[in-house]
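Reviewer 2 asked us to include a model.

Predict the structure of this chain.
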Amino acid sequence: MMEIFKILDELEAMVKESKKMPFSNTKVVVESDLLLDRVDRLRAVLPEELETARLIMSEKQRIIKEACGQADEYLEQSKDRVARMMDDSEITKSALRMSEEILAKAEEVAREIRAEANEYAENMLNHMEIVLKKGLENISKGKEEIRLEIDREF
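Predicted model (structure tokens):
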């Protein structure tokens, strides 16, 4: 991700440091070889960034799966605990009440774990989406500047 920003910073510096076109405050002369080199580097780096996004998605799935597994394990342990408590005839009523409380708590914890895992994954994906959109916008701007420069030369 940092490589994309580095290249974009280089492009920005290139434009800012370029000589202005005569009679124009907004147009500059940019060496096309240098600009095209930066665009090629962006093309090379972009697949890496997309792979990073894929890995984040994979990590999201792993986190959700792990969280669900933990929640299921917690529920199973609670059920086992309830079953053991039910075996004792003297405290059956108390055990039933406690078991309902334990199951309710286990379900609440499971919901919280799932909700937190989903929120984390969504935040990570939103961040990646913003970063990738910025990168693609800058690439499009660079391509447009190259097209304009080529059109002016011919």
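The radius of gyration is 29 Å. Residues 18 and 24 are 13 Å apart (CA to CA). We have added this to the supplementary material.
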